[in-house]
Amino acid sequence: MRLLGGIEAGGTKFVCATATGPQDIRDTTTLRTTTPSETIANVISFFRTHGSPSSLAAVGLASFGPLDLDSKSPTFGSITATPKPGWANTSIVTMLVDALQVPVAVDTDVNAAALAEYRWGEAKGMDPLVYITVGTGIGLGGVFNGRLMHGLVHPEAGHIRIPHDVRTDPFSGSCPFHGDCLEGLASGPAMTQRWGQPPDKLGPDHEAWQLEAFYVALGIVAVICCVSPRKIVLGGGIMGHEGLHEMVRASVRRILGGYIQSPFTQARIDEYIIPPSFGKRSGILGAVALAEDISEHPATQ
Amino acid sequence: MRLLGGIEAGGTKFVCATATGPQDIRDTTTLRTTTPSETIANVISFFRTHGSPSSLAAVGLASFGPLDLDSKSPTFGSITATPKPGWANTSIVTMLVDALQVPVAVDTDVNAAALAEYRWGEAKGMDPLVYITVGTGIGLGGVFNGRLMHGLVHPEAGHIRIPHDVRTDPFSGSCPFHGDCLEGLASGPAMTQRWGQPPDKLGPDHEAWQLEAFYVALGIVAVICCVSPRKIVLGGGIMGHEGLHEMVRASVRRILGGYIQSPFTQARIDEYIIPPSFGKRSGILGAVALAEDISEHPATQ
Fold it and tell me: What is the ipTM of this complex?
């Protein structure tokens, strides 16, 4: 039996899974992210225990970044300049290939989540599809003309600049690079710093949520204007707040002001900006999808 | 001999050309944009004079918009909600096909320009490639994963919202939909309204240019963060101002603050954000490229 491996590599935890496909996850485990060598050894141990060298066909890695995804680069598949202690320049793909002796496909966590939603979710086949996550960071992945979005590096939509009226929101922003970029104004840590308590402690009627919806909407408007996606999947921990999706949609519609000629940016916007079909499982399912692709088309990676 | 026709349809003029390829433009004409019926009759007359029904293989149309580019739509190939008097809902592709009896490919003027640069320019083969024009309007086209950028509609990058400090720039913006969106702050008409004279009358040391560079750079930063292009071709009438390209590049680099891990957003940014190889000819060459594509692959349109 052909087994696929998936790894969702995050800054605080690694989720590993074996599966024959998205509907058939066999085993999963969640590992704490410690040092690269210890964490990756634990990942390898999981796959050696739950697969066998002959049954494991390929592994997909959906990773935090920034990542070197240039297949011609000598450091392809490495985590590059992350501020996470010890993880900068970790050649995670090489370590996995050496230990497991199977093809390993790698992409950003957000591109992997986009792939899962594109392949199996409510947004199936919608192209361009964009997946936006609003949580500890703000990230963007997507499928464009049938393939995942890669470019000079990968999208970094959290770092666009958006209007910031310091008279109504004097918070100067939490981004160490840019201060009040989108992520600096609207990520989880930004909310915690602005309001003095984490987002999950803010009541449902707290003014924080209207401001959050406005900033996220400004980011989405930039994405709509630059990419013109056919569907936007909006996930991440912050978006779990009840009612926030509706507030973001209303704000996007208000900001666009009827300019984009489509019902999906107007009366039918609830069909256009949608939550992930797989919730928190988008990432690990995306990793399995990456494994599936490389097992079928190893030469294109 | 197989002849290709190109049309660059603009709000003030239509440029028509016959060519065997980009290096071999045979005849061109420039027609004033009047009513749809008169203008299109003149276009048809040009192709009847300079081609013959048997020699003309296909026509490419690079048009102002907004356009309906959804091939499944009953109004495919129409100019839709333009404010230009008389032109809303003009089914220009149908009129050309009926009169000339050849395949007609249509796309936005900016996508066509992007295609010309992608196929024959300094940015040849760079994918994703983005073409940004700064002139009467601000527009974006591009090639992503081998094909032109199409989506829900088409990119409308002129209408993103950017930071606007009313203390240093009290101008409220010229966009009838959004006021101070990117186009409302940085298009040619916006400059004229803000400074009381058209851009070409502003001296080379006028403060207008530094502000213009800053706004254009904010737009480019949004494009870089959302799309991660491998190359940005920056054209349009405003960008013809001497020294403006250098000012925009410096401003992009300053705004990004070293975050994007690539030499092309830092020391080598002059290779990343470049002027069009074909200057004002990108549009008509792009139209010829569209014609070439549909003559070779009519079924994919």
Answer: 0.95
